[in-house]
Amino acid sequence: MARYSAMSSIAERYDRTADAYQRWWGPVLEPTALGVLGLVGPSIPDDGAGIHLLDIGTGTGALAVAAAERWPAIRVTGLDGSAGMLALARRELHRRLGRAADERVEFVTGRAERMPFADASFDIAVSSFVLQLVPHRPRTLAETLRVLRPGGLLRFVTWRASDTPFAPDEALYEVLDELEIDDPEEPEEVRAGDFSSPAAAAAQLRRAGFRDVSAREQVLVHRYDPATYLDFLEQYAERGRFLGLDDRTAHEVRARTAERLARLPPDAFIWRAPVVSVRARRPPR
Fold it and tell me: Least C-beta-crowded within 10 Å: which of 33, 69, 137, 233?
């Protein structure tokens, strides 16, 4: 490509922010992400014996570790492009299950568009809040189809496109406008983006060769803590923007934003975001 590698830039960003992600963003996504395991549960024997599960874009390992914990005989492979995120995933695995879990859980650095696995390696593939980030989603879906065994199951959840404003974020943006602070100049990340609808998601899976496809909309609901929301913005969601400010300006932005946040009612901090949950299978033959 003429410009920098899109996946490398995304991976590098997650390398830089892995700890902040685990603290600030992981807890927002985790309840909805873990719902994916509940949906694949009926396809897994009681202990997971004989099942090899792939977690695409495993990040800090929320799905991979929870699957290993839930099914004591399952084999799990977590794939991610960020070495920093995978380091946290291994740490969490060892904290919860001990180093003996390394015998059945592995974390692999690699790209979703070019998975370093043989054909028909996995019985089940799962993913949460990742397929919007890949530069080329059809290629990722084709790779997923390739590494699944005939009849293998894919379950994932990701965002449905929405432009509904969130009042606590708007408080910061109003301050930035008042102070005439422009967006930071950052490299463009090429990504597939959010699905426009469940129907669009299902159609893309069918075009990739999946069958028995279904997709439905859900709503992710998270209640933020008003007392720490400004920390969330500064340390994670708008980290790049704050890093680009001098100390005096950053202090002004924080002070003015804090004033606006304090005027919002508690219910304004309840975030509701639409997501798409998808089920599909590789054809039996």
Answer: 69
